[in-house]
Amino acid sequence: MGNYKNFKVAIYCPVGNLAMIKDFEKFGRQFDEIQKHIGVDKVYLETYRQGRRIEKEQMEKCIRFFKDRGIEISGGITTDWMGDGEGGFSPLCYTNPEMKKMLTEVVEFTASMFDEIILDDFYFTNCRCESCVNAKGDRTWAEFRIELMKKISEEVIVGPAKRVNPKVKMIIKYPNWYEHFQDAGYNLEDESKIFDAIYTGTETRNPMYTQQHLPKYLSYFIMRYFENVAPGRNGGGWYDPFECFYNLTSYAQQPYLTLFAKAREITIFCLGVLIHPDFSMSTPINGQVFKDMDKFLGELGNPTGTACYLPYHSHGEDYLHNYVGMLGIPLEPYPFYPKDAKTVFLTESAAMDGDIIGKITESLRNGADVIVTSGFVKEATKLGFQKHLCNVRYTDRKALVNSFGYSVDGGVRFGGLEESAKSIIIPQLEFMTNDTWEIVAGFGEDNSFPLLLKTKYGKGRLYVLTIPDDFGDLYHLPRKVLFPIRQVFQKNSPILFDSFPKVGLFTYDNGTFALHSFQPWIDEVRIILKDGYTAVEDLVSGRIIEGETEGKDTVVRLRLSPGNNMVFRMIKK
After folding, report:
1. What gap in Å lies between CA 10 and CA 43, rounded to an integer?
2. Per-domain residue ranges for the chain?
3. Does domain 304-488 have CATH number 3.40.50.720?
4. By three-state DSSP, how is residue 162 classified?
5. Can you name the residues that pair with 406 across neighbouring β-strands?
6. Backbone torsions φ then ψ of 256, nearest 5 degrees
7. What superfamily in CATH does domain 8-299 come from?
8. Quick one: pLDDT band at residue 212, thresholds 50, 70, 90?
9. CATH superfamily assigned to domain 503-571
10. pTM
11. Which residue in 18, 428, 431, 539 could disulfide with 397, CB within 3.0 to 4.6 Å?
12. 29 φ, ψ to 5°?
């Protein structure tokens, strides 16, 4: 593979970083410091960014420098323009003939020097100039931009590159904001076929203090989603330190989760960061992450989890999957309906598929369990959810709850009372008594409001999960309330997880699993072993931990520390 057994490590080098290298002997000493910690297999050398192009002579010097060190080289292009003073990002205008001509020239130049080229994740458009407004016509912005960027991909990017260099491999790197691709022209459905390969932005930043609302689980989830968009052609994951370097563990969680998702290559953005004094800790951190992960990553099989469906060009309950993943619930997302899955999880975005009710019905009749969210119920009402599936209705009323009950007999009565540290706002769902069963509820005054509903359909079961108005309030659900929810999601998993929220569980098809806590404290978690498993083996230390009998269950108790990974293989004795 290279310097590591299970993945390759690349560094992206923006044009500004490359152009500033005047003394290659001095730069060599700087790069030595990087290589002391990181086994660098590859570099992406950028030819254009923000209106700036690199001189051919300078690029040739850079290529020689890295080749002399035995490092693989590829090209890179960032398709943006100089800022206009308004703030925000300034991608190119793709209805402007001069900008299209300029971009074609950059692509042809880059293809003449490299056999592989990646586009940084500014290959979108937010332009509403007079030319774009006129070209849009009566279409929505999403419809106009999706079609526009498909044409640009074929005629301005890939076509010219292949004419100059028929063997060039063209890669489109997609950013982390997948719910909103269509409105900025990212065409995941068609571009993933037009380009030779795709690449995944696994940056998560700070989910509160930035405009991007991206829980840490996204670094794993989006890798798995894109792997199922282009099986075998998802080149790797790419991350940076921006807006997450306030906490070094937070920064490290990006490569940790990217690699747990089984990325074949991982790219650090960028060269300038690794040699900048403000980010001096990033180099040893990355080196230690790669060293630690490479010890056990080959022992982990193919990722598994509850199947999710995110149709192309869809959105709704944006990024909710990642909040659910932060509850210790493994997920495996697809751009197509997973008709063979035994458990399916659908959020509001899945209701953008006009045929979704029929697909759910078929799954249920074949014996699968289907979990839908309150947002899905609201959106799918117009598709006949109540008529064809069950009479659960989304109302305009809200409830403020901080005490909860959970049923111990399938919904006939509640067997416990739990309280959260804060009150949370949930939508009130209406359901038909004795037709649908309330498994978990929030309590009001002489009233209760469903959090998890269940009804049987065909050979399967349909569940409705109520989502708080603030998705992050899922983290405030008490542990005993989360447990029956996890039971539904993990019914077909060989383990059942019992823990506090904000913890990642990553499961694999060869009886291995990993844990990672996003909380700032140490606490105990319980792993309930099923399918005849009786113990677990620590894949790092080799220690065997025997399960203890608790009633009918075989349970392994673990102390989980903040930011650390624990990886195990289940054992049958």
Report:
1. 5
2. 8-299, 304-488, 503-571
3. no
4. helix
5. 440
6. -55, -55
7. Glycosidases (3.20.20.80)
8. confident
9. Golgi alpha-mannosidase II (2.60.40.1180)
10. 0.97
11. 428
12. -70, -35
